[in-house]
């Protein structure tokens, strides 16, 4: 059987490991940028009532038409821009790669960056090029990027704004220069839009090759799997051809519609998370041996004392707090941990476990 596998499974797939998700049972979960706040009980019962009426014996609305007006309003999307919906923004990355893949075609991003750009490029048989960020502050190395655009002629460029796992916002003018210099599409990935004031949504239409991607995951609906791509119709109608029919299931459609009618609740929660991010940053910066990086997202990347990240991560876990160990995933992330901003109580528990682990 091994021979058959080696013969038929493509080498780049055999070389991958499946996306790993840590077991968080019994732990304070600060590893995956989830919103920590549950819904009020009254809202939950109203939602359950709606769900009970969904005809699950029928296929969902293939276009999720009922959602579109409220999504457009929530994003402030211009009337001449179109929306493509995905089962999480991961599925949108996949649709983009499927439509653009071909012999020699390149996906370009920055490293350290969001791991799914590299993985999905590989799934689709595209070559991934990662241009290193600057070592001191994770800002863009514009010269290196412009040179890579010239040399690699990428079909697709992904840039997360703010970036994951570093949390910083790239310089807006540098991004504009990249959009103007790129021979193919540039997708600005605004997964962390709820936690920053910066956005390229308002600049759609200004460039022929600009698209903006968002998700509801980080805002508080990670379990629903719902992402979206915004941009000119002429591009999105091409990607719509590789979208699997009914990719947004009926329960997600009704739940997103319901959540959008209660948007102020999510806005209140994300405002709270932004305030708590500033408290957490200040508290981390005050701990001897830590070097946290400023963040515009709902997590903070911090450097820990040399060669101790793995031990600190394990110690925190034993104390009941799960964070993300990034040390070992990229040379620029040596000694780094990523902490999701939780509730004030969770953040206190995180700080306490971190302090004890450092002692
Ligand atoms: C979390 C994340 C996503 C994926 O979001 P889903 O909609 O949950 O698939 C996309 N891009 C970045 C930068 C992220 O951090």
What does the largest sheet look like? 7 strands, mixed
* Uncertain stretches of 5 or more adjacent residues: none
> Which structural category fits the helices and strands?
alpha/beta
The end-to-end span amounts to: 51 Å
Shape: globular
In sequence order, what are the helices and strands, one letter per element? HHEHHEHEHEHEHEEHEHHHEEHEEEH
For the record, the CATH architecture of the largest domain stands as 3-Layer(aba) Sandwich
Provide a short characterization of the protein structure.
With 359 residues, the protein is α/β, with parallel strands linked by helices. It has helices spanning 2-8, 11-14, 41-52, 68-75, 89-100, 115-123, 142-152, 172-181, 217-221, 233-239, 250-261, 263-285, 309-318, 344-358; strands at 28-29, 82-86, 106-111, 127-132, 156-160, 185-189, 210-215, 227-231, 291-292, 299-303, 321-322, 324-325, 336-340. It has two domains: 18-40 and 264-358, Aspartate Aminotransferase, domain 1; 58-261, Aspartate Aminotransferase, domain 2, CATH 3.40.640.
